[in-house]
Amino acid sequence: MTSAGPRSRLRGLAARPRRERRARREQRARLRAVQLVVALVALGASILGALLVGAAGLPVSGVLKALADTVPFVHLDSGLSVVEHNVLFELRLPRVLMAALVGGLLAIAGAGYQGVFRNPLADPYLLGAAAGAGVGATLAIVAFSSAPDFAVPVAAFTGAITGVLLAYGLGQVASRGGSGGGGTGTLVLAGVAVANFLSAVQTFLQQANSQQLQRIFAWVLGGVGTADWGQLRMVAPYALIAVVVLLTHGRLLDVLAVGDEEAATLGMSAARVRFLVLLAASLATACAVAVSGLIAFVGIVVPHLVRRLAGGSYRIVLPLSLLVGGAFLELADLVARTVVAPAELPLGVVTAFVGGPFFVLVLRATRRQVDV
Amino acid sequence: MTVLVRGLDVELGGRRVLRSVSMEVEGGSWTAVIGPNGAGKSTLLRAVLGLRDGQGMIAVSGRDVRSMRPRQRARLVAYAPQSPRLPAGMTVFDYALLGRSPYIPHFGRETAHDRSVTAEVLERLDLADLAARTLDQLSGGERQRVVLARALAQQTPVLLLDEPTTALDIGHQQQVMELVDRLRLADGLTVVSTIHDLTLAAQYADRLELLSDGRVAASGPPADVLTRDTIAAHFDANVSVSHDAEGRPLLALERPVRPGEGAAQ
Fold it and tell me: How many angstroms away from the CA of B92 is the closest CA of chain A?
């Protein structure tokens, strides 16, 4: 249909002055190297900052030297005692890495849910995925007190999927009666109902099994304070799968933004994309919940920030949410363990302090879009 | 026959929306589907797109639409919906680039060729200057052209347009119709569009298909279909029909004469 070949265009492009070429590039919303670098630096800085601060009061230069010492071919004497060394590598480092991992997982899962449901308020916590994972994990702990390590994440995953499907189904049923689909609000309300219900189930389970209470509580309120290398190793493979699947679906989620029917006329199977992303986002949520308990709002706050600052395409939102989510939860954990030191705040409390007001902001922005 | 529909029955929610509809659209022609509200015009387009199940045959370029894979179908038929969902914040270029989806593998990405096809389409539709704008910053006429750009980027031989001129003023209506007509003649596109404005339909379409209550009530060249009587019968409207120099019908609404008004003059 088009007459001039692509080659003539490409040659023209190469000859264009740089400014014009940049203008051309801005027509497309893609992840830019600058954005990626900024996000990586933010994550790196937050991790380093979190490593330097802690109850043990390790000397900054000692920590830096000990970290540098782990780099191959670098040998530095950190001057840390054996105890200090253990605090750094067996307590602080796993905790810090876990915070980054959980933050990244929750944020990218939120972005995935938002793409699937075309709803910026979708969030692992609000959708009932997190609560579902909680029930699943609690069941695994209660039912098989000698369950192998991997059983908890698997049960959490099953619970997360069940939670999301319940919320989605309930939302569909509830909006069918009303006019015009219901959309944004209905799904979130259904999710809140499901989340509350599942939390109640979980509370019931833990009260009915008081002999396991300590184990359950350690997990529910866990945050990332109890993280160790074993936990990291346990969730890493699942987390990797979830993240890879989500990252490869950026373009397809952009296509899905035009709606199922139009996506179908563009040759895409909306159902298949939705299914895969839903599975991956729920797996990511389950990983996060299985090791850190319930942490709210990361999945809303981070993708929204990324959208505002970097662009709305899911090819930007997904990867940057992963990195910024890690940095965000790292900072939240830093606040959690310093603000009432020597005691610690539960991590979920810190994120809720930020997330509550933020939710209102996002809601306002969404309403405005709908009104236009 | 580029688009062939035979004995098509479609049921939606227990209601029969289309009853044994048949339609033949020749390659390179423009067919306008007209009819009163709720006659099944949009459903007919959706059926041709493979979005609605039903009894009967639907073929595009000699191949059964419903046995095709979605990607194959999307390389044959492009669709510009009546009220498209325009994701706020997406740029015009990215939106038009979505039209290349049927050519991109599931986990793949756009190639330089896809981008150059898109850039070319935007150039043709006079949208090159708006390429970096986001969709929420466009006027109604610009939006219509952007949706058209996405459909053209699919590079299909058949273009389905659902009410391409609704919500446009008369100048923009003409602009969009002229544009589609130019593209059709230049590229040999086959166009099927639903359209409310009967005079507009008659000006641009080679054939009209009048749907009424799910059936084809009349079909043929505009002058044969748009007569005072058929319009009275199916639209319940009083119109006078005149003809332009080319013999295409021009419709004007007639206000019924009320008793007493005539005498006052």
Answer: 7
Render pLDDT for B98-118 as a digit per residue (tens, 0 to 9).
Answer: 999 999 998 888 999 999 999
SS3 sequence, B182-241? HHHHHHCCEEEEECCCHHHHHHHCCEEEEEECCEEEEEECHHHHCCHHHHHHHHCCCEEE
ipTM score assigned to the predicted complex: 0.88
Whole-number Cα distances in Å, A22 to A19, A25, A315, A320, B126: 5, 5, 19, 22, 20
* Preferred mutation among A266, A276, A318, A370 to probe B, highest tally of B CBs within 10 A: A266
Residues A195/A126, Cβ–Cβ less than 8 Å: yes
Q: What is the pLDDT of residues A232-270, one digit of tens each?
A: 888 899 999 999 999 999 999 999 999 888 999 999 988
Residues of chain B with CATH 3.40.50.300: 3-76+156-264
Please tell me the distance from the alpha carbon of residue B166 to that of residue B196, in angstroms, as a whole number: 8
Residues 172-211 of B with CB under 8 A from A: 187, 189
Is the pTM of the predicted complex or chain greater than 0.80? Answer: yes
Which chain B residue's Cα is nearest to A26? Answer: B132
Does the beta carbon of A311 lie under 8 angstroms from any beta carbon of chain B?
Answer: yes
Q: Which CATH number fits domain B3-76+156-264: 3.30.9.10, 3.40.50.1820, 3.40.50.300, 2.40.37.20?
A: 3.40.50.300
B82 touches chain A (CB under 8 A): no
